Amino acid sequence: MATPVIQTDKLTKRFGDFVATNEITFDVQPGEIFGFLGANGAGKTTAMRMLCGLSIPSAGQARVAGFDVYKQTEQIKRNIGYMSQKFSLYEDLTVLENINFFGGIYGLSNADIKTKSEALIGRLGLQGEAKKLVGSLPLGWKQKLSFSVGILHQPKIVFLDEPTGGVDPVTRRQFWNLIYEAAHEGITIFVTTHYMDEAEYCNRISIMVDGKIQALDTPQALKQKFNAASMDDVFYQLARGAKRSE
């Protein structure tokens, strides 16, 4: 088996007396679509911020793309892509200006930016919108563009924080087609979501409840383990069990 691109061991983050993530341990394999599921407030975003080199852990160990989350945060940032639900492009720049801007940030040459921007615009069917302000695009197009720009530099890993929030089911499915294409190209996908049906699209998932990983396996294996018809049922059983143990 290849060396995992994400490795964590008892990774913990405390804010005073509050434990946001409690000794989480998991690995993610190269090219895997790894779902990081849980309700709002479960600790998903806190964990992602540590893995992206944006927040130093309180305890435990983790390596991302081969780099240590304590000592090599800048190297981590250069080897990952990131996209949030809150949108990460500049709405007062055109589609093409955004691509050129972020291509420069990622250190791509002018020739690479030109080639990649043409390919990206063609793949998304945005030829007629390339010179339009991003702010004028529908939300679904903004999200797909944001994801595509986030992997423009072909990172080893892309972190997606609730990427399909607020979009319609058809657009959500189209967005996941982009994720499949990126994974096929060897990019590892780490995605947080509270849509339990999206778990079915992942190779493996972990489910966070109150800062702890309560389950980790393939969607099919988890449904069998909990005798559940859907991932919603699995999550409900885990959340109910956590409340009973309080």
How would you characterize this protein structure?
With 246 residues, this protein is α/β, with parallel strands linked by helices. The chain has a single domain (6-245), classed as Rossmann fold, CATH 3.40.50.300. 37% of the residues lie in helices and 26% in strands. It contains 8 helices and 10 strands. The protein has helices at 44-51, 73-78, 95-105, 110-124, 139-150, 169-184, 219-225, 231-245; strands spanning 6-15, 18-28, 33-38, 59-64, 67-68, 80-84, 157-161, 188-193, 204-209, 212-217. The protein has a 6-stranded mixed beta sheet, sandwiched between helices. Strands 2-1-4-5 form a 4-stranded antiparallel beta sheet. Helix 6 links the parallel strand 7 and strand 8 (188-193). Helix 3 (95-105) packs across helix 4 (110-124).
Structural class per helix/strand content? alpha/beta
CATH level 3 topology? Rossmann fold
Radius of gyration: 18 Å
- The CATH superfamily turns out to be P-loop containing nucleotide triphosphate hydrolases
The number of distinct helices, counting runs of at least 4 residues, comes to 8
Sheet with the most strands, sense and barrel status: 6 strands, mixed
Tell me what portion of residues adopts beta-strand conformation: 25-35%
Q: What strand order characterises the main sheet?
A: 6-7-8-3-9-10
Shape: globular
Tell me the domain tally: 1
